[in-house]
Specification:
Number of strands of chain A: 2
Largest sheet of chain A: 2 strands, antiparallel
Oligomer: heterodimer
Distance between the termini of chain A: 37 Å
Structural class of chain B: mainly alpha
Largest interface: A-B, 76 and 99 residues
Strand content of chain B: under 5%
Order of helices and strands of chain B: HHHHHHHHHHH
Largest sheet of chain B: none
Helix content of chain B: over 70%
Radius of gyration of chain B: 18 Å
Distance between the termini of chain B: 32 Å
Number of helices of chain B: 11
Structural class of chain A: mainly alpha
Chain lengths: 108, 234
């Protein structure tokens, strides 16, 4: 492993770690104002939606995003499994099997 | 998932998410292998950086010989959403020691954050360090192991995606988002669905101008503001 790789890993690790722990240290010593709590209470639903939607889109610099069709197709049975079972494991397994089948039949 | 916040229940609750870590971790190890990164480099990256999408970017930028400063800046931008997640979850650990807080924050991921937000809907908005430590540590070890195995087996498996494992992480967020919407009693279903719709549309428009990870951060901030406005209006 070259120094170039090692230094990159160490510095990338440092900025990531700071993003993770500095908010903990700040919130720990701060009386969080009501508006900020209200704002942050929407982080879970907003960020999970954003992560999911990002996986359905394909970024093309300077153009409208495309659609990741195989992820969109595989999401349909996964969502149905969620509605029917309310089980995280069932959603994951259904999605993976659906994706494997899509690729097997060449729709991916 | 039940209301129990023991170390053991943390272990049990994190299991469904492990498929995501294994699928993406194997793929990452394989990509690293084909990019001529050593097993040691992959292990160190998984243990020190510990962030899926950032690690993919780092590997591709290392391969392209990008300047270290550019790689570190990209990593920061991709992971800047961690700031929002940490700030959001830290409220539940204010009474715990600073060391506990730093340890919990050090291993927080998208997945264990989302899992925690599902958990609080079962526990009357309580979290305990031991529960999150269990989830975090298992996820951390499984991720590191999966990336190393992927790197070792790199030349054997030509196309890991053939088995659909890369979809595990998307499936997991579908499950976590759905459970979040139906179990979060602190907000009306209508409010939650409006936020989902708003963020989804915002993502499409934002990805006209920004790569996915940056769009994700902006859409989340806008979505939180939108959520507050909708609640105030009701």
């Amino acid at each position: 492993m070259t120094n170039y790789v090692l230094v990159t890993i160490l510095l990338s690790g440092l900025v990531t770690w700071l993003s993770r722990v500095v908010p903990f240290a700040i919130i720990k010593n701060l009386t969080v104002p009501k508006w900020l709590i209200d704002f942050l209470s929407f982080v879970p639903v907003a960020i999970m939606t954003a992560i999911f939607v990002e996986s359905l889109l394909v970024y093309h610099a300077g153009q409208w995003p495309g659609f990741n069709l195989e992820n969109i197709y595989a999401s349909i049975p996964a969502i149905l499994a969620g509605v029917l079972t309310k089980s995280l494991l069932a959603v994951v397994i259904t999605g993976v099997i659906a994706m494997a089948l899509l690729r097997l039949v060449g729709w991916g | 998932m039940d209301a129990s916040l023991t170390f053991k229940s943390g272990f049990k609750d994190v299991i469904p998410t492990l498929f995501g870590y294994i699928g993406v971790g194997l793929a990452m190890g394989i990509v690293a292998n084909t990019s001529h990164l050593s097993v040691l480099a992959v292990l160190l990256m998984s243990l020190i950086v510990y962030a899926g999408s950032a690690q993919f970017i780092i590997i591709s930028m290392l391969l392209a010989g990008s300047p270290i400063s550019a790689i570190v800046l990209s990593t920061f931008l991709i992971n800047s959403r961690m700031i929002l997640m940490s700030m959001s979850i830290a409220q539940y650990f204010k009474k715990d020691s600073l060391w506990q807080n730093l340890a919990l924050g050090s291993l927080l991921t998208d997945e264990t954050f989302a899992l925690s937000m599902n958990k609080i809907n079962q526990t009357d908005h309580q979290l305990r360090p031991r529960w999150l430590h269990a989830a975090n540590i298992i996820a951390y070890l499984v991720w590191a192991a999966a990336t190393v195995v992927g790197c070792l087996l790199g030349h054997l498996i030509a196309d890991p995606n053939q088995f659909g494992l890369d979809f595990a992480v998307v499936g997991m967020f579908i499950g976590l988002l759905y459970l979040q919407i139906i179990t979060d009693r602190s907000k009306t279903l209508k409010t939650q669905l409006l936020v989902v719709l708003f963020v989804a549309i915002a993502m499409y428009f934002l990805m006209r101008f920004f790569p996915g990870n940056i769009a994700l951060l902006i859409a989340t901030l806008l979505g939180c503001g939108f959520g507050m406005a909708v609640t105030a209006h009701d």
